[in-house]
Amino acid sequence: MAHGISDPENKKEHFDSATELNEKLDLLSQWIKESQHFIVFTGAGISTSTGIPDFRSGMDTVLKTGPGEWELEDHKAKRLKSDAVIDDMQTAIPSIAHMALVALQNQGILKCVISQNCDGLHLRSGLNPTGVAELHGNMNLETCSKCEAKYLRDFDTVGTRTHYTGRRCDKLNCRGRLKDSIIDFGEDLPQDELDKAFYHAEQADLCLVLGNFSSDMFLLKKKTILGSSLTVTPASDIPKRVAKRKQNLAIGNLQRTPLHKAAALNIHAFSDAITQGIMERLNIPIPTWIVRRRVHISCQHNSRNQNKKQIILEGRDPNNPEIPFTLFESIQIIVDQKVIKEIAHQPFTFDLVDYDQQPITIRLNFFGHYNEIPFDLTYSNLTSIPNDEQFYLFYNPMMGQWRKTTNKDDLPV
To answer: What range(s) does the Deacetylase sirtuin-type domain occupy (predicted)?
Structure first.
């Protein structure tokens, strides 16, 4: 069965002239200034400039990533070596459009981002998850099938066809099997994310759609309850709802979408060009992307041996300290310039004894998706390791340096 867009007319890519684009961006920017509840709905096209291909762009697309994945499959074609596609989505750096949305959220202008993407770039960019609805899951998030605890990972968590990842819940009183959060075809959208999305669609006076909106326009999810088949509203009904409420719907997409006539404004340009133009008109700078990490360290006397101290080191979600985040590939304990322990798996728990007079270094080794260098936590002796400390590490890939701070807003320039 073909996945791609069947109508050749709908595959055509359109580009507004410079004059048309400027006029449309002027209007859209004015709407944003006047808006009380502005939301953005994103599809695969917002990530193509990062090197992640979309699904349905045609064989003759102008995108540097080349044709969509399903378009290639439908044509039994292979991707060209010249296509600018990254090998590992974990290495993708959030785009201009991603970072513009972060700035708009930080300013209180953008109330919610509703996304069909599972590449994790919205959260990686720095958006607060309370203002994000990920309808198709997140490749870095897995949840416990028993207690529903969430775990973020700095690696791809996609599991088997049954979604099990092979890992278990960290809670000793649970130990349930973990599942990835990806939504496959024929599966229901997550109800909590869907509820959040429709709540904001009901409040919105302006919705901007960015990137390959047609990707999932025609996918209906079905489930059976007590023998009856109930159609679960597809993601595409979210922007449609805004238009039906007679509020402004703006669509930024190269291809025409099924909501072309319903939209108050159709902009044919790349997502980065649209958002950059908006931010210039709003006079809001687009922030540089920074790797953001939150680390928690505790040092307590071992309950079975008071001469020993137990150190626990763990990552946490930068926006929610209650959610564990696997950040470290390994850690090393260095005393007197010698590695005395190395741990390459969770949990990063270890005991130390008799090092009261010697300097101790805890070296954090990251997964290195952005060529992050190790970071050393250096203490004058064992007693100087804090009983309980939470801090942030910020890394600018262009500078190649970490900054440690307790202020989540103290981002490096």
So the answer is: 18-285
